[in-house]
Write a structure and sequence with these properties.
about 260 residues, alpha/beta, about 45% helix
Length: about 260
């Protein structure tokens, strides 16, 4: 995996000046959208069973692109888990736009007030790719993040979301899609290899493509409908992504074990 990164770096090196120029141009043209409001919620069901869920990560988890978290990834994830299993869900988001795995570990984890959790969901990878962090640097921070969370919540399963589909971003040029998109996929593969045999830690390694979503949900051909600003998800994308992640979580042994407990 590291060899692929370093070979890719050599190939991409002549393109770096172009990458920097285009990156600055995109940053200036893409509107700066706020994070979603109301980062915690409760979905009440008739069942006496309540799932306590913490969701941690970068801008997509912070809900950039929608007004309230209940309309974003976490809200849809919680609604799907509650509706499909007839359990109440108490959820809270700890996320910040622009944060890498290292920043989340150092700046967000100390702010988590919750002493217990039944389920932790983490959405990261986009900013680490944008900052050109190597797979080695990435996995070191992921290992530390898992260790820190396990220290605080030793029995709580951890679920990592899919990597963002950087190659699909309409606001990005072909050069940026190639370099950053390929790096994002490498980070995802490294994460998959790290956790695939680890108990109670999961990674949804399904590669998100807009074509597959269009076919799966019988949607139109306009890819811009999936994005709020050419980079961040739209309300539609958060709905699809939240449902997909819920389905992934519900199939795991850890979640099924939790459901069977009284």
């Amino acid at each position: 995996m590291s060899l692929k990164y370093y070979l890719g770096s050599i190939v991409s090196l002549p393109l770096l000046p172009i990458l920097i120029f285009q990156g600055k141009k995109i940053r200036a043209s893409v509107p700066k959208l706020p994070e979603a409001k109301n980062p915690k919620g409760y979905i009440k069901k008739t069942s006496s069973k309540t799932l306590k869920m913490l969701v941690i990560g970068e801008s997509t988890i912070a809900g950039v692109g929608v007004d309230f978290h209940e309309n974003g990834f976490t809200g849809i994830l919680a609604k799907t888990l509650a509706g499909q299993n007839e359990v109440s869900v108490l959820w809270r988001v700890y996320a910040k736009s622009g944060y890498t795995a290292k920043m989340v570990r150092r700046r967000l984890l100390p702010k988590i007030e919750d002493t217990t959790a039944d389920l932790i969901v983490i959405g990261l990878g986009g900013n680490d790719a944008f900052k050109l962090n190597s797979p080695d640097v990435w996995i070191i921070q992921i290992n530390k993040l898992i260790k820190d969370l396990k220290r605080k919540y030793p029995k709580t399963p951890i679920y990592f979301t899919n990597m963002p589909p950087i190659k699909e971003f309409p606001a990005f040029t072909k050069t940026i899609k190639f370099i950053i998109g390929n790096l994002g996929e490498l980070l995802g593969k490294r994460l998959h290899n790290r956790v695939k045999n680890k108990e109670n830690v999961y990674y949804n390694n399904e590669l998100i493509t807009l074509e597959s979503w269009q076919k799966k949900y019988n949607l139109g051909d306009d890819v811009t409908a999936f994005f709020s600003d050419g980079v961040h998800p739209s309300k539609l994308t958060y709905q699809l992504w939240g449902k997909d992640m819920a389905n992934f979580i519900m199939k795991t042994k850890s979640f099924q074990t939790w459901l069977q407990k009284k």
